[in-house]
Structures are given as structure tokens and as C-alpha cells.
Specification:
- The chain is an alpha+beta fold.
- The protein is 31% helix and 23% strand.
- The chain has helices at residues 33-39, 62-67, 99-125; strands spanning 2-3, 6-10, 16-19, 23-24, 51-55, 68-73, 80-84.
- The protein is elongated, with a radius of gyration of 20 Å.
- 11% of the residues are buried.
Length: 127
Amino acid sequence: MKIGSKVYWRKSSGEVIFITPEIESENARETTKDDDMGFYPQLKGFDPSQVEVLQLTYQQYLEDFQRAKSYIVNPETGKMEFVYIDGNGGATPTPQAPFTDQLTELKARQDSAEAALLTLMDVTTHA
């Protein structure tokens, strides 16, 4: 069984408090928020009502975590946002959607644009 990480974060700010390790084992089992808050020392002492958890799929955002300078959970959307290292030394970086999600969206847009172009070409050649 493969279980993805869980991202524990402050409801008020989106600050990531702790990310549980991924698990790949036949004996693995899903744990609850209460289980984790009682088990992981990094979560002890936090008020559970002030902490949210975001369950990720196995290896979700793996490359994003490796490339990011920092990350938060957007408190309004409950989704991960990453700040990537800017090789140009530009302005203060702002959190953005994971590159993996951006790439998926761009691929969908490209497919849609190509389909529209093929339809347009078909219409103009048969007119």
C-alpha cells in the first residue's frame, strides 16, 4: 500500500507546521488527524482546532517540494502554493500553484487550442 504525505498547517496563516513521511508498505494503514497529533512530536502542543491537514497522494508534488524555496497552504483555498528559487534575483517571489499543476493546465490548454485549430482548418478547406 502506498500512502502519501499529510501536510499539517495553521488555519490562520497557511504556515506549514509538519509534513508526515510517505509510506510504502504492505502493513501501512491510514491514520487520523488525532493519531498523528498524538504520535508526531512536531505536532504536540498544537490546538487541533487551529490546525488543518491536507492529504496528498503518494509522491504528489515530489518535484515541487525539491525545487521550492518555501511553501504554504493557501488558507482560502486549502491548496499548496510554492515559492520557487528565482535564478534571476528578481523581485520578492510570491507563492504560486505547484509547477506540476501549472503544467497539467498548460497541456490541457494546448490540446484545446490544437483541436480548435484543426476544426478551423477543416472548415476552411471544405468551404
